[in-house]
């Protein structure tokens, strides 16, 4: 049997009655133990001013709503210096001020909102007997997310995309505790710098090789050591190798088509275009022949399957009409061709500058669309200046067994893979690449040395490796070596320190999952509330 004490929302509440409400729920009437202590001055008042009622939503009972109808005593403060004239007994252990539900219900609401989001939490709460809207769930979650975590000393910082290739935000992770510290709305240098200035306790900053975060770390946390991410360093090496192997042709892994096949494909395309034009002429002739027989446009449409208006339009011409081009709209950069041509002649050649200018004049398209137009103008200028520089394209290296050309992507992946981890098929390809491409042999030697430096956790051989890479005269490798030399301290720390940005990358995957689960409608405040550990929001 459930006693009155089981219905009590807290130890300070004395339950007087439990009754059924008209809606089918339960109403628990109770009163607080009076104390009469002023919250401002601490004076114990003996004079009672009156009573007030406070209704709170509590845990459901057997799926039915439970409402706590609490009688709270109100007192007069008799202290002459106290500005407060009246006050109520405090029920902080039961509910927060001005709250409409008990603290234990608010805890459940925040837990479900943090784990599932707004609408899923609303559906679950309704099944449990708590009628709470999704807006209330998110409002409570954001309110609880105002707490701060313990001061971080080792952080990882990385970017994530609101919209890919357009807008980005910044995530900051505590690498020691493996939790998210903060979510920033953008990846601006000023924003990151200001955040780091507010956290002078940071001692180590792990980042990718983006210069933006390096600059923010230098300005906002000059006392902290920067650590470049090892994964991105190896990725840069692989990309440099791939760029160099592109000189052997962009193979796709399939056998290269012969010249005869290329001619056949071009001929087929031309035949298809001629066939389309011929079919238009046949349709035009058929329509005019049926018209000469005295048939109406509607009857011709029933026989040919074309709309009556199209047939009436075609009957007005003596030859098949050419297809009309669609009228230019502000979404097309050609709509502003005259203005762009004049700006181009005036010396404004960068795509971003021209994009801003035509956006002010009503352009509604993308910058990528504009860049395609400008790329054609640049190619035309280069052809007008003189003959194009012919880059030396080497013969693609082929698999000795299958005869397929080895693509630059596969060659770059095999170049950084140790011999002990190669399969027999991969080892055969590596031997063929080393035999037919001296550049690949040089780059593989450098890659194996670089892997040894990373795994050996000793940065002393790194300057010698950079010097040897610069002396290879392979442009992508030389460029990589020079960038490593400019960021030498961060690369050295990446080799010698245990920190990396792997934890930040994992948290970004979780952030993307939450963002897509909320259909991309979550702002930075809600994303931050759901990304922070729940213990930070207690």
TrEMBL record:
InterPro entries: Transpos_ISL3, Transposase_DDE, Transposase_Znf. Pfam families: DDE_Tnp_ISL3, Zn_ribbon_ISL3. Residues 155-243, 414-530 form the Transposase IS204/IS1001/IS1096/IS1165 DDE domain. It comes from the Bacteria. Residues 36-78 form the Transposase IS204/IS1001/IS1096/IS1165 zinc-finger domain. This is Transposase. It comes from Celeribacter persicus.
